[in-house]
Design goal:
Layout lengths: L5 H5 L7 H15 L8 H17 L2 H10 L2 H4 L16 H12 L2 H7 L13 E7 L1 H6 L1 E12 L14 E3 L8 E8 L2 E8 L8 E3 L11 E12 L8 E4 L15 E7 L6 E3 L2 E9 H6 L1 E7 L2 E7 L8 E4 L15 E8 L6 H11 L13 H9 L2
Parallel strand pairs: 1-9, 11-15
Antiparallel strand pairs: 2-7, 3-6, 4-5, 8-9, 10-11, 12-13, 14-15
Helix pairs in contact: 2-3, 3-6
This protein binds zinc ion (2 copies).
């Protein structure tokens, strides 16, 4: 198979400068890298081809030889220079090593984004659960939390080195923090990128560890962290507090503290989304004649007018007396369900009066009535 022209492979003009060549190669290498295209032979070939082209064009001597003689300039004699390779045997392993040597680990952070690559020493996220009352949820609250976390060591500022000593670049990974392993398997060459065990992914080796943290760069502490909880949260909501999880090893980025909301059961109210529901006992007399009753609301009491002939199960809606909405204006409602109270202790006089009332036709209940739950459902619109 005829080899393609190296400039054509990289898609650059013959006059391209070093930077242009490097940029073109990097783009191709990231696009066709085997880590991103597992099992894709075409991508693998493109990766090899681009790397081979780059190995020649990045080097002024090799480039001028190529410009003069083309591929023929390299076909004889195999290898060239220290660390070089013969093109007869330019295989995937060579290409991957070449890519690693030129671009180290950093190329992969761009590809895989964010926390991959060198951030292996990022601290752990911590979770903490807090239980709030409905009143706190309705008003919003600032809570002080006691948190046990690994904090940046004050002695060494997180570097892990004893004062006055310095670090050296990890010889195993040359500072990349990760190593690329190429193994032969039944399916051909397998490439894996793993954290460098020699340096734990930091890329450097401590020569004299800090005595306070034994080189970890972090120490245990118990600290108080203040968290503002907006009104309207619900059980299961969580608030991430960036950088308040464990500090990373040897100066690595800190994890987050995740505050998970739970809700305490309320004596009087049941929450349904942003509405609150309560049941209020009303005397038979007030229910029959109508009147003003005192009802509990979040953070206080209010007076509610009920009409004559109010039945048990009747629900009154107090608009805007529920829980505020988290991400928009306004609040839910409070639903007050009336429960007509049947007296438990009656005097002889009371009984006499009631028996007399019982003789009135008005006191005879109707044959059937819509059930309590149907009415509640109707009112709630569910
Ligand atoms: Zn290393
Ligand atoms: Zn330390």
């Amino acid at each position: 198979m005829d080899k393609r022209d190296y400039y054509e492979v990289l898609g650059v003009p013959r006059t391209a400068g070093e930077d242009e060549i490097k940029k073109a190669y990097r783009q191709l290498a990231l696009k066709f890298h085997p880590d991103r295209n597992p099992g894709n032979a075409e991508a693998e070939n493109k990766f090899k081809e681009a790397t081979e082209a780059y190995e020649v064009l990045k080097d002024p001597q090799k480039r001028s030889r190529y410009d003069q003689f083309g591929h023929a300039g390299f076909n004889q004699g195999g290898g060239y220079g220290p660390g070089g390779f013969g093109f007869g045997g330019f295989d995937l392993g060579d290409a991957l090593r070449a890519f690693m040597r030129d671009f180290g680990g950093f190329g992969f952070e761009d590809v895989f984004g964010g926390r991959g690559g060198r951030a292996d020493n990022r601290g752990q996220d911590l979770q903490i659960k807090i239980t709030l009352t409905l009143e706190e949820i309705a008003a919003g609250v600032t809570k002080k939390l006691r948190v046990k976390r690994l904090a940046t060591c004050k002695e060494c500022s997180g570097y892990g080195s004893a004062p006055g000593s310095s670090k050296k670049t990890c010889p195993q990974c040359k500072g990349a923090g990760q190593v690329r392993r190429i193994t032969q398997s039944l399916f051909g060459q397998m490439v894996s990128v793993t954290t460098c065990h020699n340096c734990g992914g930091t890329g450097s080796i401590i020569t004299a560890p800090c005595p306070a943290c034994r080189g970890e760069g972090r120490t245990r502490e118990e600290t108080t962290i203040s968290v503002n909880i907006p009104a309207g949260v619900a059980a299961g909501n969580y608030i991430p507090i960036e950088g308040k999880g464990d500090s990373g090893r040897q100066g690595g980025p800190a994890g987050d503290l995740i505050v998970i909301i739970d809700e305490e059961e309320h004596d009087l109210f049941t929450r349904q989304e942003n509405h609150i529901i309560c049941q209020v006992p009303v005397s038979f007399v007030t229910a029959a004649l109508g009147g003003t009753i005192e009802i509990p609301v979040l953070g206080g009491t209010e007076r509610l007018e009920i009409p004559p002939s109010t039945q048990t199960g009747k629900v009154f809606r107090l608009a805007g007396k529920g829980i505020p909405y988290l991400r928009r204006r306004g609040r839910g409602d409070q639903l007050v369900q009336i429960h007509v109270w049947t007296p438990k202790k009656l005097s002889d006089d009371d009984k006499k009066l009631l028996r007399k009332l019982g003789e009135s036709e008005s006191f005879a209940p109707p044959k059937a009535s819509k059930s309590f739950f149907d009415k509640l459902r109707e009112t709630l619109g569910v």
